[in-house]
Protein: Putative ABC transporter ATP-binding protein YvfR
Organism: Dietzia timorensis
Amino acid sequence: MTKADETLALRARGLVRRFGETTAVDGIDLDLHRGEVMALLGPNGAGKTSTVEMCEGFIAPDEGSISIFGLDPIANRERVHARVGMMLQGGGAYSASRTEEMLRLIASFYADPIDVDWLLDTLGMREHGRTPYRRLSGGQQQRLSLACAIVGKPELVFLDEPTAGLDAQSRIAVWELVRALRRDGVAVLLTTHLMDEAAELADSVVIIDRGSVVATGSPEQISSLGLNDGVVASFHDDVAASELERLADALSNFDVRVRGGNRANEISIDGASSPEIFAAACAHFAANDMAIERIGRHERSLEDVFLELTGKDLR
Ligand SMILES: Nc1ncnc2c1ncn2[C@@H]1O[C@H](COP(=O)(O)OP(=O)(O)OP(=O)(O)O)[C@@H](O)[C@H]1O
């Protein structure tokens, strides 16, 4: 076993999963190390949940292999699950039990659980300690599911949209908890629809579309994918093709390419971003009565790259 293998919490190779005619997952590879947070991002139906469920050992891949701490999660389900935490959606058999009671019961299954009082306080659940699960709000149930997933001090945690439906304060509490897990050397695989969540938390981001990985790297690496120098301007109104042509004519002395931006109200000028180009472009916009909302150098967020790669908005 190499050093890299020792720190590896999860390795997936060539994962394929079909449902009838649909190939939900089409050859995905993942490597997640201890103390690393990996975010799976993708539009609806991209194959995130199917990927996670295979890694959790709940559904079998049609092709490919998964190793969790060197073990196959289906053949060694009990041994794997003793070291892995996962958020369960819905209360299931626990729906009548009270928050604190449920957490203490789950903690009692483990030799060295996280302090339940600390967890209740950290997740802002103290005042709901005696509330039955089914009476908790959606956001409270979500936080309790997270607490249940981590109370056993797992070495690897799967979090499926951990902050979906949470208010801003609770979201920050969950982010803090994920950061604390990471500091403790826990490997975290999370799915999210929130770019800021991925950018805030993840060491590595894997963008999935139609069952395949379309980009992978740190949030910074992904944001700079294919980035070239240039200017991007956004306008109050959507930009017509004729306006793009007129601007291209106005800038024909410069070595740039004019195209529509990621959004209908944007123009991208690719190639250079000198003061002369800003001046010429702004003079053209003023002469043509184009109300500029914002103009600046090319700078892309994770969300822009996602849009370019998948052609879809995250939400
Ligand atoms: N049990 C199933 N039976 C049939 N088709 C399924 C099943 N589970 C998933 N699929 C299909 O597989 C594809 C991938 O679904 P999956 O739930 O993995 O995507 P996702 O990225 O998690 O989407 P979302 O963000 O909407 O949760 C979709 O086309 C979905 O309809």
